[in-house]
Every structure is written in C-alpha cells, then in structure tokens.
UniProtKB/TrEMBL annotation:
InterPro entries: Filamin, Filamin/ABP280_repeat-like, Ig-like_fold, Ig_E-set, Ig_GEX2_N. GO terms for molecular function: actin filament binding. Residues 1117-1146 have a biased composition (Polar residues). Keywords: Membrane, Repeat, Signal, Transmembrane, Transmembrane helix. The chain crosses the membrane at residues 1086-1108. One of its GO terms (biological process) is pollen sperm cell differentiation. Gene3D superfamilies: 2.60.40.3440, Immunoglobulins. It comes from the Eukaryota. The keyword Membrane applies. SUPFAM superfamilies: E set domains. This is GEX2 N-terminal Ig-like domain-containing protein. Residues 1-26 form the signal peptide.
Length: 1154
C-alpha cells in the first residue's frame, strides 16, 4: 500500500511539472480599448486653400482618461505625410474635458484630392475612411478683414451703442465663398481673462448689419459693464481672428430706483434723539456704481418716510440730504425721535430702492410729565354719585413715545364752590400695560369739582389738566333703563328714524334727569362717520307740569342716516351706559335709484364691429350710495342707441358685478359713430349720450404681450411689440410702468431690461401701445430671470504644489469665495485637474457665508503620476440651469523619482553557443516590454537630450557582446571578459565602423540618454556555459529631476539608483504558487493517509483480541475448574484491560456476535 501511495505522489508531481509552464504564462491582454469614429463637421469635405477643416471625433464605448497610461493623441497623415506638410498646415487637436466636442483641425494649402489616415498605436486606431477635396480659387488671395471703431470712438457710457466698422478686401466675393461672413464677438476683461462670447454680462444687444453693400458693414452692441475690455472678432472658416479692438465703458445715467440703500456702518439701533445716518449708493440702469466724478457732483434727492409696526406714518425729525458722502454715495440723516421697531422707506416716484424698507429700532426718551395724556373711560363730565371715575394715564416722552415702567403720580380733587382740596381715601394707581397706568376713585359727594394730576413733586401737571367734572345725585340704572323704538331697526338711507329712552332706577321707578346729562352717539364705523341726533324730553302730563322740559325721565331721539351701512348706537345717562354698555346696531340700506346721480363709469370710445363690448354703469341713490338691485330689476337697465343706428345695434342684458356696478353688452353691426344712452326705468344716466366709433375688426390693434428670459447677471434687449397686431405698419408704446425687480430703459420700440443684483424669478411690467390711427391696446411683458450657476467672486490667481504629495501639508488653500442667489437650491461644485486630483479639506468650511473656503490638493489613484510643471485646476459650478468653468494655474514643483527597470526575474537560455551568442532581451520571443526609464524624463522641461543616466550591465559568468554608438566612447567603462580584476576600466582601444563600435566584456557601464540605454539593453548577446548565470542591470539617474522653471542646474538632488537581477537558466522553474500548492497537497495527503493507517491498526488489534478471547472460552475444563477459571478470567480481564467488569461483559457479548 505504501508503494501505491509513493507511486501516486510521483505521478502527481510529474503532471504538475508538465502543466506548470503552461499555467505560469501570464495573460497580458489589456483592458478593452474604446473605439473612435470620425466624420467631417457639417459633412463638409470640400475646401478652398486656407479654410479650416474640422473633423468630429466620436467615442464608441467607455473612455476614462484615468484608466490609460497614455492620452489619446492620434497622428494625422495626409497622402503619406504625417503632421504639417506641403498638403496641410496648422494641424492640431481640440480634446478638452467635454468628449462630446472633440475635434481635429487643420488648414489645407494644396489643391487636389487627398486621403487621410488617423492612427494611434496605444489605442490601436487606424482609420483611413476620410478624404477631402481642395478646389482652386481664381488668383487665390485669402480675403482680409479689418475692423475699426466708428468715428474712432472707443469710449462709451453704459447703455450707449458701440459700432465697429468692417473693412473688407476687394477680393472677397460672397458668391465665391460658401461660408458667409458672420463673425463671433468675444469680450474679455482688462487682463484678457474671463472671455465671454456673444451677449453676456459685458455687452448686450449684439447684432450685425451685413447687407449687400459691404462698404456699410457694421457690428453693433451695447456695453453694460464699467471697465476696460478687449474684443476678439473671429470666424474659423474665413481665418478671421482680430484682437486689436479694445474699449472703455464709464457709468451711464443715474437710474434712481436701482440705487442701494443701507445704514451707515450697518448701525440700525439708535438712542433717543441720536443721529441716524444712511448711505445711498447710486447706480445706473445696469447696476454700475456712480461716483461724484461721473455725476459731476450732481445731487439727487429721494423720498424718505417711516412707518411703525402698525403701518402708521412716523415723523422723521430734521431730515437732511446733504449730498455726496466721503464713502462714495449719497448721505441722508435724521434725528431719531419716534421709538419702537420701525421701517424706513427710501423711494423714487413711489418705487422702493434696493434694500428698502430698512428696519431700525429707536429707544424712547425720558418721561415728560407735561406730555403724558389722560384717557377717560367715559367721555362725560357728569357722573352719578357713588359711581367710579377712572382715567388711564399714558406715559410719554417729549415726542409722544410710550415710556414703560411705573412712574408715581399725584393728584388733587378741589371743590369748585369751596375751592378746597377734598380728601380721597380709596385712590388706586395700577399699571394696566407697559407705560399705561390707571387712576380710579369713588365719587361720594355731589357738586362741581376739579381734578389735577401732577408728578409726585406737584411741580408739573399732565396734559388736559385741570379737568372739571360734576357729580349729581341720581339713581339711573343702566340695565333697568329702556331704549326702544323703530329707529333701532333697519331702515333706508334718507329716512328719519326715531327711538325712545326711558330712564329707570334699580327698582324700576322713573329716574328723572336733566336733558344735558343725556348723551347719544350714532356712528358708522366703516367710514368713521358720526350722525348728530336730536333729543327731546316727553311731556307726560300734557303741559300741566312746567318742569318736564328741564327734568324728565322719558326722551325721544330723532336722526337721519344718509349713508348706507352698519351703524352703532350708544346711549349714556351721565356716566352710566345704558344696555350694559353694549351698542345697538342697525343696517341702513341704500335708497331708490336716482338716475341723475348714477353714472356711466367705463366704456371704450373706439371699438370693432361685430364684437361684444361692455359698458359699466354705477347705480346710486340720492345720497350717492351704491344701489344693489334685484335680478328681476336688471331689465330696467337699458342701452339705447340713436334712432339712426338702432337697427344695426344689438344689446345684451346687463350683468350684476355685486358691487353696485352693472355691465351691459352691445354689438355694433356696421361701421360708424353711435350715440348711446344708458337709462334706468326710462330715466337717462349721465353722460347721455356718449359716443362710440366702430372700426373694422382687423383695423384695431391687439396686444398679445411677450415672454422673455434673461440670466440674472446680464441684460436683454427686446421689441415689446414683436407679438402685437396692428395695421399701418406703425405703432408705438405710449405708456409703461417700471418692473418691480429690475431696470427698464426704452429706445424707441426696443427695451433694455436688467435685473437687480441677486434677483432671480419672475418679473413683469404692463404697457399700452397705440397704432397710427390712435387706437390703443394693453398687455404685459413677463420676464423670467434665470439664476446663474454659483460664481467665484474671489479665488487665488495661482496655486503651488509638490509632485506626488499632499499640498499643502497643513490646512488647505485659502481665498476661495463663492456666491449664489438661490440658497434653497442644491448646487454642485467640482474641482478637476489634468494631472492631479483635488479634494475638500476636512477642516471646517463656512457655507453661504462670504468668508474663507478651503480645499486640499492631493495625488489620487488613477491620475498621472510623477507630474511636474504647469497644471490647471478647473472649478466647475453647476445648477439646474447650466454650469460655469474657471481655470486656475497650478505650479507643481518636481521631486526626484528613482529610475525604473522593466525586466523579468529569469530568462530561459535556449541553444546557447559561445560563438553565436544568445539575445537576452528579445521582445518577440518573450512577449515582454524590456526597458529602463525615469519618471522625471516624461515632464522634463529642458532639452531632453540633456537628461542622461549612468547605465551598467554585468554578468556573473560568461560574457556578453554589444554594439554601441561612437558618441559613448568617452563615457564607456568595462570589465574585461578574461580579466581577474573587478575594477572598472576605461575604453582604451576600439574599432569604429559607421560611427558605431563593438565590444565584448563581462560588464559595461556608460553615461547616456534613455534611448541609448534601451538600445543597448535590447541588443545584448550572452555568451556563456551550460549552467547560465546572473545578469545585473543598474541605473543611476545622476540626480536629474527637472528644469522648472528655468535653471536646470538648480534642479539637482542626490542621485537615486535602481538595480535588477535576472537569472539566466536552462530549465523553467516551477511557479511559486504552484509549488506551494503541490507541497500543501502532499502534506494534506500524508495526514489523511496516516489517519487511515491508524484506524486500520485499531480495528485489526480489536479483532485479534476478540478472537483470542473466544478461543480461550471454547477450551473443555471440569466444572470446578470452569468455575475457578471463570473467576480467574474475570479477575485477569479486569487486571489486563484495566477496565471494570462491565466492559469485559460488553466484550463477551461482542465476541458472541462475532
């Protein structure tokens, strides 16, 4: 069995050794490369010499530049000539971050038909599907364009029209060139940065006048931002690129509603009588700041007002607008005298400035006793004895502001007859609200008195002091007294109403009073109207008692309400309110319609025929109250034309507008002038008649309005009448209102709208237009202001970083500040770089606060390693409407990286002979990229021929031969193949053939370029014995790592050395993974086999023991002996096995079974 086991292990080992070489071969298949498709831009493959030819590049599949070591950079070959040649020039590619817009561009310069090949070995691209045709032009001279400012004017005010004249060479024929002249206008700032093409935040209203007369060609635009700007006029297919134009923009005229108002210094909390200052920054219509220089020191005045928390006007004391301040705007100030939380409104012609209204708070002043005001609970000077007199004292400063806290007051009650002060024992002072306290006491003595309220020192009285009042003896009870009559019921305006008053005491007995103590208040709260009543006593004895007119308990009240509405009636008997103090309410309805008072309030004097038109009529009674009539009475309202046109006039029944006005509809059938009268119940309503002139329907204008959109940082020019209908070819805007959130300037039919800073959303304004015949129409312009992507208002002009490490090491780059108008929307901010990666710093960032922002630049996996030089950080901000890009240069300082050596661990020697030699590094045989290099060489900014390495190759046994260029003789050293010395020796003698020399040595080293080193590496021939040897390759980078920015001598460091050894062997070694797997299998198999053998031995011994026991049991013996033997067996079994007798019994039973 052991022999079988050994035989199986040997067989497995042989199989593994046979399969191992095949398993150890590496799969060098690379990631599936994407495909590329090519087509002519606009399918245009015909050109004239000097045109710009454009090829669109489309990516087929997934392309991620981070996954590939080399970028996509194809070679362009035209008729066998690569790159710029006698066929094409200016060959370049435009492969930006947006892969959807990849292009290849060149200029054909030779006439003929040409074939193209586009190839890139790294991406296995080889495309020959494109060809193009270049046609000759008669006496071809490229057209030339020149540009100049009209009248040499290059300085403008914002809002002016800038005009560029186009001067065209005589050889330009629009019929010869298939591309019309339609240039792009790009404007950049003073530094030539932040280029923006077309309408932008720099210019608007861009249009061109390129008609048939080329001598009148002009380009027009409206500058809107202040500053100095450069203009680029370009058109690729005509080879136009002019950068000679620049212009200066100064602020435009002041746009008063566009000014920005703020508190001076941000202070909006003022002490009493402090000076409150505010600053108004004037702007033009495009948001540019104005200065005293641009305005020639002109002073502009604005409307300033204040309101309190209730919306009531608050007086601004000593308001001043002195003019320009030292801070660059208009200054205004006032003395803060009205306390509380207030709003300051700064307006121009009823339109708020930006930032208005401003909130501010003013503290109250000290208490002014003389300005404190008593407020009586009952406006009466007659009080019933035993009633309570109460007044509320409002504590005020000298400007009438409420002063909180509880201040002590004193008072005196003086009898007018005795002129003596009376003692009052139950006086109560109580604070009922901050700054308001109640003074009350009980009236126990009848007579005439004077009340005087003063400060605690009795030096100063409050307002309206002294206060005279009378206490009379009476017992009128407010709940027992009766008020009734038809005058308390609903009535009609203009009718006399009457009700009665019956004064009773608590026991229901009549309580006579003097007429002067009876007070009736009748009010219409809706319009704050008071009605004067007439009160008369009632003679209960028909003239028998002469005292009834002076002293009575029954009275009648007469009054005439003239205005319709809900009235309140209050009745007082001296200081006692009747009906428990609750008012009586009644509704007064309008009277009958009075046609002479009613009016025709709305109609159109110019209308179209065969169309319904409306006339609004206001029905009123004799007291000018609007009258609401029943639906059944609408037929009493009529519209009647004159007799001549009655047969050509159609009337529709009036419609109730529920507000006292009624709209009647009519349709004139023929053209002409109609005289129309409105009437009610046959009575004419003025004006009667009113004239209406009818026109054809198509002769009247129709205003449809307009919808436009604009970015929040730009302006838009539009014709407000572009959608409107009118005849005669002429119409004009006769009236319009300013929009609420932007400026609006009119230039004839054109309007320029500019949204105020940081505004986004919907804006609108109404307008009215008139045609040539004076017919009007009205509509609205709706403007949607689009929120721009986030903007960087501050960012560093340049960043510094170090190659392959975190930069900066602590914190992050500072100086990034971003603004965005819509703080509720989710936005995206992305940092990308061509050769590195950026990430946000873990340090705290402050969002939505114009403070510091921090980012960190770090090398991330998947980016290009060992990069140094100039990189670009692109900051992309995005919202739902678009994106913006900013490019920030990054200077990456180089660091020295060790050279690399790409060689395998071993090379199989096959058919090696000492005479012929063996090519060690054969790419075709081994499918391996044998090479050496240095990462710093790729981005070496100096002359790459100056980048040299010290390269050495040495073999442990045998020797090798090589063929080197003659330029390396001065730096080449070697170790002789037959020498015993291990020292490097210079090259003394050599034979040069075709500027190359051959040598045979045990080791060689020289100083050369990377190309020289790789050339030697790939042609080494090994001459050795059958045992092979060890080849050692060493590379010293000499300390080179870059020449950035200028001096290469400064960019040196300690040299770095890389070394690799290659085993030259006869047999293929077993792969370490397979050898380890084989050893593991053998160990596991040995363990399993050992367990099986142990198990087999166990059961064998068990069977032997059972058989032995059975044999002893079956031998014949006498009974006594058997008994003795059984006993002995029992004892011996216990002794031998060391087990209890129970186990022996179990074994006996098992043996029987056996």
């Amino acid at each position: 069995m052991a022999a079988q086991w050994l035989f199986c292990n040997a067989l497995i080992a042989l199989l593994i050794l046979f399969i191992a070489p095949h398993l150890s071969k590496s799969d060098d298949s690379s990631t599936q490369s994407p495909g590329f498709a090519y087509s002519w831009m606009d399918d245009d493959d015909e050109f004239y010499p000097g045109d710009i030819a454009t090829i669109k590049v489309k990516i087929l599949g997934n392309y991620n530049s981070e996954e590939y070591k080399y970028p996509f950079n194809p070679n362009i070959t035209v008729n066998g000539s690569m790159g710029n040649s006698s066929y094409v020039t200016d060959v370049h590619s435009d492969f930006g971050n947006d892969t959807n817009n990849w292009r290849i561009l060149f200029k054909p310069i030779m006439v003929g038909v040409f074939y193209m090949v586009i190839d890139d070995e790294h991406f296995r691209v080889h495309d020959n599907s494109l060809h193009f045709h270049v046609s000759p032009a008669d006496s071809y001279i490229p057209p030339h364009f020149m540009f100049r400012w009209l009248n040499s004017k290059s300085e403008f005010q914002a809002g002016d029209t800038a005009t560029i004249q186009v001067i065209v060479s005589e050889n330009f024929n629009t019929k010869t060139y298939k591309h019309p002249f339609n240039p792009n206008i790009t404007v950049s700032d003073y530094d030539g940065k932040n280029e923006k093409m077309g309408n932008s935040s720099y210019i608007t209203g861009l249009f061109s006048n390129l008609g048939p007369a080329m001598n009148k060609w002009e380009l027009h635009f409206i500058p809107i931002m202040v500053g100095t700007f450069h203009v680029l006029i370009s058109q690729e297919n005509l080879n136009v690129s002019d950068t000679s134009m620049s212009f200066i923009v100064t602020p435009g005229k002041i746009y008063r509603p566009g000014g920005i108002v703020s508190w001076m210094g941000g202070v909006n909390h003022f002490a009493f009588e402090a000076k409150a200052e505010l600053l108004i920054i004037p702007k033009d219509a495009f948001g540019n700041n104005l200065t005293y220089i641009s305005e020639n020191w002109r002073i502009h005045f604005f409307d300033l007002s204040a309101t309190d928390a209730k919306g009531e006007n608050a007086y601004l004391w000593n308001l001043q607008q002195p003019g320009w301040s030292r801070f660059g705007g208009f200054e205004a100030w006032f003395i803060a005298t009205i306390s509380g939380n207030l709003l300051l409104h700064v307006k121009d012609k009823n339109q708020d400035l930006i930032g208005s209204p401003l909130t501010f708070t003013v503290d109250h002043g000290p208490l002014d006793v003389g300005n404190c005001v008593p407020d009586w609970t009952i406006e009466s000077k007659s009080f019933q004895i035993f009633s309570t007199m109460e007044t509320f004292i409002t504590q005020r400063d000298k400007f009438g502001n409420l002063v909180p806290e509880f201040y002590p007051f004193d008072f005196d009650v003086i009898g007018m007859k005795e002129n003596l002060s009376l003692p009052i024992g139950d006086v109560q002072f109580q604070e009922v609200a901050p700054g308001v306290q109640s003074l009350s006491f009980k009236l126990l003595i009848d007579g005439d008195f004077t009340l005087i309220i003063t400060d605690k020192d009795k030096k100063q009285q409050i307002k309206d002091m002294p206060h005279e009042y009378r206490v009379y003896v009476g017992y009128c009870d407010g709940m027992k007294s009766i008020v009734n009559g038809s005058g308390l019921q609903n009535s009609v305006a203009g009718e006399v109403s009457k009700f009665s008053i019956f004064l009773r005491d608590i026991y229901d007995y009549p309580s006579p009073f003097n007429l002067i103590t009876i007070r009736v208040e009748i009010t219409l709260p809706l319009i704050s109207l008071d009605v004067d009543p007439h009160i008369y006593p009632v003679d209960p004895h028909n003239g028998e008692n002469e005292e009834w007119e002076r002293w009575n308990s029954d009275f009648e009240v007469f009054y005439t309400p003239e205005k319709s509405g809900l009235y309140e009636i209050r009745v007082y008997c001296g200081s006692v309110p009747l009906n428990g103090g609750n008012p009586f309410t009644k509704f007064v309805s309008p009277g009958k319609v009075n046609a002479s008072v009613s009016r025709v309030v709305k109609y159109e004097s110019r209308v179209s025929n065969t169309v319904l038109h409306g006339v609004d009529v206001q029905l009123m009674d004799s007291f000018s109250n609007p009258v609401l009539i029943k639906a059944s009475e609408l037929s009493k309202l009529t519209l009647d034309p004159d007799e001549i046109n009655r047969s050509f006039f159609m009337v529709v029944m009036f419609v109730d507008n529920r507000d006292g006005t009624y709209t009647g509809f009519y349709m004139p059938m023929i053209l002409g002038t109609y005289k129309i009268c409105a009437s009610f119940e046959g009575k004419s309503i003025p004006p009667c008649p009113f004239e209406v002139t009818t026109y054809k329907r198509e002769d009247l204008p129709i205003a449809y309005g307009l919808d436009v959109s604009v970015w929040e940082d730009e302006s838009i020019v539009f014709n407000v009448l572009v959608n409107d209908y009118f005849v005669g070819g002429k119409a004009k805007v006769v009236e319009y209102q300013q929009p609420g959130h932007g400026s609006l300037l009119q230039h004839g039919d054109l309007f320029i709208y500019t949204p105020f800073k940081r505004f986004y959303g919907n804006d609108s304004f109404p307008y009215s237009m008139s045609d040539a015949n004076g017919n009007n129409a009205s509509s609205h312009v709706n403007i949607f202001v689009v929120c721009i992507p986030p903007q960087f208002v501050s960012f560093p002009p340049q960043l510094q970083a170090d190659e392959d490490i975190f930069s900066p090491k602590f914190g992050g780059y500072s100086g990034f500040e971003i603004t965005y108008s819509d703080s509720t929307e989710n936005i995206s901010i992305m940092f990308t770089a061509q050769h590195g990666s950026f990430s946000l710093s873990p340090l705290l960032m402050q969002l939505w606060d114009p403070m510091w922002k921090e980012i960190t630049v770090t090398k991330m996996e998947g980016r290009e390693g060992n990069f140094s030089g100039e990189d670009t950080l692109r900051v992309t901000t995005m919202n739902k409407h678009g994106k913006h890009d900013w490019d920030i240069p990054v200077i990456v300082n180089p660091i020295n990286d060790p050279p690399f050596i790409n060689v395998p661990e071993f090379i199989m020697l096959e058919n090696v002979t000492e005479d012929e030699g063996f090519l060690i590094f054969d790419r075709q045989r081994d499918n391996f990229n044998f090479s050496i290099g240095d990462p710093d060489h790729l981005h070496f900014t100096g002359n790459k021929s100056h980048f040299r390495l010290m390269f050495s190759v040495e073999v442990s046994s045998g020797y090798f031969s090589a063929n080197l260029p003659a330029e390396l003789t001065s730096t080449t050293e070697l170790k002789l193949k037959n020498g015993n010395s291990n020292q490097w020796q210079p090259l003394l003698t050599f034979i040069e053939i075709s500027r190359r020399f051959s040598l045979k040595a045990k080791a060689i080293r020289f100083r050369g370029t990377i190309e020289d080193c790789n050339t030697l590496l790939q042609q080494i021939l090994y001459h050795g014995d059958e045992d092979g040897g060890v080849l050692t390759v060493s590379v010293n980078d000499m300390g080179w790592y870059g020449c950035y920015p200028e001096d290469c001598q400064e960019m040196m460091s300690a040299p770095l050395i890389s070394e690799a050894t290659i085993n030259l062997i006869r047999k293929m070694p077993v792969d370490p993974v397979i050898a380890q797997s084989l050893m593991s299998a053998i160990v596991i198999e040995a363990i399993i086999l050992t367990l099986l053998v142990a198990l087999l031995i166990f059961f064998t011994c068990k069977c032997v023991f059972v058989l032995l026991h059975k044999k002893i049991k079956n031998q014949p013996q006498p009974q006594s002996q058997n008994l003795h033997h059984m006993s002995s067996t029992k004892d011996s079994s216990d002794t031998i096995t060391g087990q209890p007798s129970g186990l022996s019994k179990q074994l006996n039973e098992e043996s029987k079974l056996g």
